[in-house]
Amino acid sequence: MCKMWCRRLMRLDKYLCKSTDLTKSEAVEKIHRGEVSVNSETVFDESIQVHENNTILLKGNALTLRAFRYILMHKPAATICSNIDEVYPSLLNYLEIDKPSELHMAGRLDADTTGLVLITDDGRWSFNITSPTKSCKKVYRVTLLRDIKDDVAERFKVGVQLQGEVNPTRPAELEVISPKEVLLTITEGKFHQVKRMFAAVGNRVVKLHREQIGEIRLDVQQGEWRYLTEDEIVSFNQ
Ligand code: URA
């Protein structure tokens, strides 16, 4: 997807990890042993920058980078959007694939939030989803403690001031489903943003579920995942 305009530039040890089953320490060892060449020269420094147009050989065999991975997952509650387990297990435990630790989440959800999470190892792509400058929409289904007040849609449209933030929130869209259930569409992802927005208007989120990111809607069961289609992947390239 990014072939026309960018080269994947990275350290030599990382290149080895992304093109073989080697761990980082195994890759470094092979480089130090003189088993790796870059453009016909044996290289002993694992930190040099290489890219996929270089000819990189391990014991004479050409190495090709694995393609980037793009995954949609339905996050259950009591899991975390982190690469390591903490109080709750990492979402990556649900992926039965190679080297899950190379992946990251394109926008995190709180431990108690459920719903759509996109996971990848392509940092440029996830920037298109997470950066507020890209205005990628995220749709949340929110269950509230108190009935929604009539002025909230307008206040969210204008932007509300969250505690500790310099700028108000960007314009957000509120659709009322019932007095205590709404759909909220936002285009940024400040820390605990949805919960803080409702706190700013005197309400409280009791349940939060992300249904949509960009044009991608959740279509797998809790704890399940699938790879994105080519069309879904490119839908975030603007
Ligand atoms: N906003 C929140 O408050 N929590 C989330 O998990 C996502 C958005």
From TrEMBL:
Pfam families per record: PseudoU_synth_2 (PF00849)
Catalytic activity of the protein: uridine(516) in 16S rRNA = pseudouridine(516) in 16S rRNA
SMART domains: S4
Keywords: Isomerase, RNA-binding, rRNA processing
UniProt KW rRNA-binding keyword: no
Top class in the EC scheme: isomerase
Entry-linked Gene3D superfamilies: Alpha-L RNA-binding motif (3.30.70.1560), Pseudouridine synthase I, catalytic domain, N-terminal subdomain (3.30.70.580), RNA-binding S4 domain (3.10.290.10)
EC number: 5.4.99.-
Positions of the RNA-binding S4 domain: 10-72
PANTHER family on file: PSEUDOURIDINE SYNTHASE, PSEUDOURIDINE SYNTHASE FAMILY PROTEIN-RELATED
Listed NCBIfam families: pseudouridine synthase
Family in the record: Belongs to the pseudouridine synthase RsuA family.
Function: Responsible for synthesis of pseudouridine from uracil-516 in 16S ribosomal RNA.
Identification of the protein by name: Pseudouridine synthase
Organism: Vibrio artabrorum
